[in-house]
Every structure is written in C-alpha cells, then in structure tokens.
Specification:
Length: about 210
C-alpha cells in the first residue's frame, strides 16, 4: 500500500526572525515549482508579510514602545496564519509524496496508509449576495473530510486549463471576492481528508458575480 506523508509545520517556538526566514525560503522553493498551484497573489502575500514582520522587528529594536511591540505581534500573527494556510495547500496537493513536500520547504510530520475514500461533495450551490464582485458558495458536509479546495473557471467548464484554485477552507461555505461584476463564473469543490485523501470533484455550478 502507498505510504502517505504530510507537512510538519515547524512553526512552534520560532522567533520572528526565524519565521521570516522560513517564509522567504518557502516562497523561494515554491516559485516556479510545478507540483503546486495557489490562488493568485498568495505567495506574494507571504513575501509581503515577511517584509512587514522584518520591518516591525527593526521598529522594536530601534524605537521600542507599546505601539511597536503591538505592530510586531500583529505582523507575526499574520505571517504564522499564512504559513499554516500554506502548509494546508502543500499537504492537499502533494498527494502524500514526501519529495514534493520537501521541495516546498517543509519537513515531513508523519506517515500512514490510505485505507478509505472520500465521497464527492454534493449540493454545491451559489447564494445571493449584495456586494459587488462577490459570489458566495455553499455545499454539503463530506464525512471524514478535514478541508475543501474551491476551484474557479472564468472561461467555461470544459476549459480544463482555465481552472484555478481560489480557496482552501475547513468550512462548507466560501465567498469569492474581487470578481468582475455581472460576469458568469463556474465553480467546483474537492474534499480533502487525512493522509492525502482527495475526493472526486463536485459537480460544476455556474454563478453570476454581483
């Protein structure tokens, strides 16, 4: 049976400087890495967060004060959150492949065996929203799923090369923003489980951005 590996986040106990180093290293290793794809601008947001934390560190060093320390705590929290989200993307897309995980700048946390399957997400549906450029999606819970990936396509459901990963979430709902208002988009969802399990893709739904 195939052995599956998942990401070891390795964030506990890291200093702010070490967090910045880890974030920048992951971005470097994932830039141009064909094994993974992320929502547009996601890696850039990690770089921005690294720069912000590095700047906040300098402010504390030279200026001190409550305001500087609070800014540092906020910047550190933001970067940690992004790196946790990145670890989720890597675990989901690596398919249990140890080499792929290592190529993303993370270490392997644990291993196991694939012993079951996840059901296809059902009930994917758009919900009304009054905010321009938004589409709100909801779907039914998949038993044994830990997270879900949301994919969008602006060209049409048959244009396979146009499907883009736009969200990674533990919820059975998600709001996609910054879309072109009054334009149709197509969406599908995939459930993710432990040890690299992935469900088949859901049915495709068509929705009009507000």
């Amino acid at each position: 049976m195939k052995i599956f590996f998942v990401v070891k986040e390795g964030l506990s106990g890291l200093t702010s400087a070490a967090l910045v180093e880890k974030g920048n290293n992951c971005v470097d290793m994932l830039t141009g890495n064909a094994s993974f794809n992320f929502p547009v601008g996601f890696l850039a947001s990690i770089t921005t967060a690294c720069n912000a934390l590095e700047q906040a560190d300098q402010e504390v060093l030279f200026n001190g004060g409550k305001v500087s320390y609070q800014a540092k705590r906020t910047a550190e929290k933001t970067l940690r959150s992004l790196l946790k989200e990145l670890a989720g993307y890597i675990t989901a897309q690596a398919g249990g492949d140890e080499a792929k995980i290592l190529s993303a700048g993370f270490e392997v946390r644990r291993k196991g065996q694939s012993v079951e399957e996840l059901n296809t997400p059902l009930g994917l549906r758009p919900l009304l929203t009054s905010f321009s450029g938004q589409i709100r999606l909801r779907w039914n819970v998949v038993e044994d799923a830990n997270n879900y990936q949301v994919f969008a396509n602006s060209a049409g459901p048959d244009a396979e090369d146009k499907w883009e990963l736009v969200a990674f979430t533990s919820q059975t709902r998600y709001t996609i923003e910054a879309l072109q208002s009054a334009k149709f988009y197509w969406f599908r969802v995939q459930a993710l489980g432990r040890k690299g399990l992935m469900s088949p893709m859901s049915q495709v739904v068509k929705a009009l951005a507000a």
